[in-house]
Design a protein that fits this description.
2 strands; 72 residues; 2 helices; single chain; alpha+beta; two-stranded antiparallel ribbon
C-alpha cells in the first residue's frame, strides 16, 4: 500500500521538482507531460466553454483547486 502524504508534504514535494502531481486524499500521482495533441484538445475545450460561459470564469492552465469535502 502506498504511503499517504499530508497536503503540506505534497506542497513541499511540488517545490522540489518540476514534475506535476495530483493529490487525491493523501495519495499523490504523477501527471503526464503536455504534448501538441494535449494542447490542441485544451484549446478546443477552451473555445467551446468560452462560447457558453456567458460571464463565468473558468481556468484551463496550471491552477490548483482544492475540494475540502473530498480531501482533494
Amino acid at each position: 500500500m502506498a504511503a499517504r502524504l499530508s497536503k503540506e508534504e505534497w506542497l513541499e514535494l511540488k517545490q522540489q521538482t518540476d514534475q506535476r502531481y495530483e493529490y487525491l486524499d493523501g495519495l499523490v500521482y504523477a501527471m503526464a507531460g503536455e504534448s501538441r495533441l494535449h494542447n490542441k484538445i485544451v484549446g478546443n475545450i477552451t473555445e467551446a466553454l468560452r462560447a457558453r460561459a456567458r460571464g463565468c470564469h473558468f481556468a484551463f492552465l496550471s491552477v490548483r483547486v482544492a475540494i475540502a469535502q473530498l480531501n482533494r
